[in-house]
Specification:
By secondary structure, the protein is mainly beta. 7% of the residues lie in helices and 42% in strands. The protein folds into two domains: 228 residues, no CATH class; 93 residues, no CATH class.
C-alpha cells in the first residue's frame, strides 16, 4: 500500500483532496517555470513515446526518446516528487508479481578483469581481479576516494551483457565492472547519488534525501548518447572516464563521439547534470526508461512538456500534460518533465526527471 500520511489517503474528503491536488499542481508548475526560464537560448527537440502496456512492475515498459540532429548541450535535473514532504515511510521493495525474467540473457562475470593499481596491494602491479573470481556474490571495489566523494565499482556474478567497458580515472583503468556508484558527502551526510552501468549505458540519479528521510529510492533510468535497440534500448559505451576535480564523466561511444556529463549540483532539492555532446551521430541523443502499471504503481505516471514560442528565449510557447501511456509524440520541445503527482506503492520516493536547456551544435 502507498507509504504516505493517512490524512491524505483514500479516506480524505473530496474538498481536502481537491486542495491537495491543487497544491501539488501549483508546486509542479512552479518547478516547470523555474527550470524552463533558466539557461541559454533554447532549441526545440522531438520527444517520441515508445511506451507500451505492462503488468510487471520490474519491466521498463516506459520509453521516452529525445531526438534532434542539432543538439550539443542539455541539462538533466532530478528532483523529489511533489508529495515527498508527506511521506512517513517508503516502499522500495521489488514487485515480481506477474513477472517472468527466465528469458533474459545471462552473461557470467570475467574473472580475468584486472584491478587498477590504486585498488591493488601497495606496490603491486595490476593483475587478475579477485573480485571477479568467485560467482558467489557481488564484489565491490573502491576505485577513487576522498573524504567527500568516492567512486565504487561492482562486479556481479552475471549480467545481461558482457562487462567489456573499461572505467578510467587518470592513468588507472578498471575492467569488468557492471556498475559504478558515485557517492557524495554533503552537509555531513553521505549518500549514493548516481549510478552508471557500463555494459548497457543505463544510468540512475537521485538528489540527496530530504531532512525527514534517511534515504530515498532510485526509480527511472536514463540514457545519454546514441541510443540503439539491442533487445531493449541501450547506449554502447567504449570507455567511461571520470575527472574528480570537476565531477565530470566522459562517455566514449562505440558509434563515435563522446559526451561530457558534469555533476554541477548535489543537494536535497535537486541533482543536476550538464551534458555536452561532441561528435556524436545525429538522431536520438537521450532517453528515459521507466515503468508504469497503474498510476498508483509506477515510477513515471505523467509527462509535461513546453514547446518553444516565437518570443525571446522561446517565450510564448505552450505547456502540455498527459498520462505517460497516452502521450503522443511532441515536436519543438524545450522542456520535458516525467514523474508522478500521486504516491506510488513502487519506489514511492523515486525522483522526477526534467530534460531542458537544449542548445545547438
Amino acid at each position: 500500500m502507498p507509504a504516505f500520511d493517512p490524512s491524505v489517503s483514500r479516506g480524505t474528503s473530496m474538498p481536502a483532496r481537491a486542495k491537495l491536488a491543487a497544491a501539488l499542481l501549483a508546486g509542479f508548475a512552479a518547478t516547470v517555470l523555474a527550470v524552463a526560464s533558466a539557461g541559454a537560448e533554447p532549441l526545440g527537440v522531438t520527444v517520441r513515446n515508445e511506451s507500451v502496456n505492462a503488468t510487471c512492475a520490474e519491466t521498463d515498459n516506459v520509453t521516452l526518446k529525445l531526438v534532434s540532429d542539432d543538439v550539443q548541450k542539455f541539462n538533466i535535473s532530478v528532483r523529489h516528487p511533489a508529495y515527498v514532504g508527506m511521506l512517513l515511510a517508503d516502499n522500495t521493495a521489488p514487485d515480481w508479481e506477474t513477472c517472468d525474467m527466465s528469458g533474459d540473457p545471462v552473461v557470467p562475470a570475467d574473472a580475468k578483469a584486472p584491478l587498477p593499481p590504486s585498488a591493488a596491494a601497495p606496490g603491486a602491479k595490476p593483475g587478475p581481479n579477485p573480485a571477479a573470481a568467485s560467482p558467489a556474490a557481488p564484489k565491490r571495489i573502491t576505485i577513487f576516494e576522498t573524504p567527500d566523494m568516492w567512486l565504487t565499482g561492482f562486479i556481479f556474478p552475471s549480467f545481461w551483457r558482457a562487462a567489456t567497458v573499461p572505467v578510467r580515472i587518470g592513468g588507472d583503468v578498471t575492467q569488468g565492472l557492471h556498475m559504478v556508484q558515485l557517492w557524495m558527502r554533503v552537509d555531513g551526510k553521505a549518500e549514493e547519488v548516481l549510478v552508471i552501468y557500463p555494459p548497457d549505458g543505463y544510468m540512475r540519479a537521485r538528489p540527496m534525501s530530504p531532512a525527514h528521510m534517511r534515504d530515498t529510492a532510485y526509480g527511472s533510468s536514463f540514457l545519454v548518447g546514441p541510443v540503439e535497440q539491442a533487445e531493449r534500448p541501450i547506449v554502447r559505451l567504449k570507455e567511461v572516464g571520470f575527472t574528480p576535480q570537476t565531477r565530470t564523466f566522459t562517455l566514449h561511444y562505440a558509434a563515435g563521439g563522446k559526451a561530457r556529463m558534469q555533476v554541477v549540483k548535489v543537494g536535497s532539492d535537486e541533482l543536476r547534470l550538464e551534458v555536452q555532446l561532441d561528435g556524436t551521430p545525429p538522431g536520438t541523443f537521450a532517453a528515459l526508461r521507466s515503468m508504469y502499471v497503474t498510476e498508483g504503481n509506477a515510477d513515471v505516471a505523467r509527462v509535461a512538456w513546453r514547446s518553444l514560442g516565437t518570443g525571446k528565449g522561446g517565450a510564448g510557447g505552450l505547456m502540455g500534460e498527459a498520462p505517460v501511456l497516452s502521450f503522443a509524440d511532441a515536436q519543438n520541445v524545450s522542456m520535458l518533465w516525467a514523474g508522478r503527482l500521486v504516491p506510488s506503492r513502487h519506489n514511492t520516493s523515486a525522483p522526477d526527471f526534467i530534460f531542458d536547456g537544449f542548445s545547438g551544435r
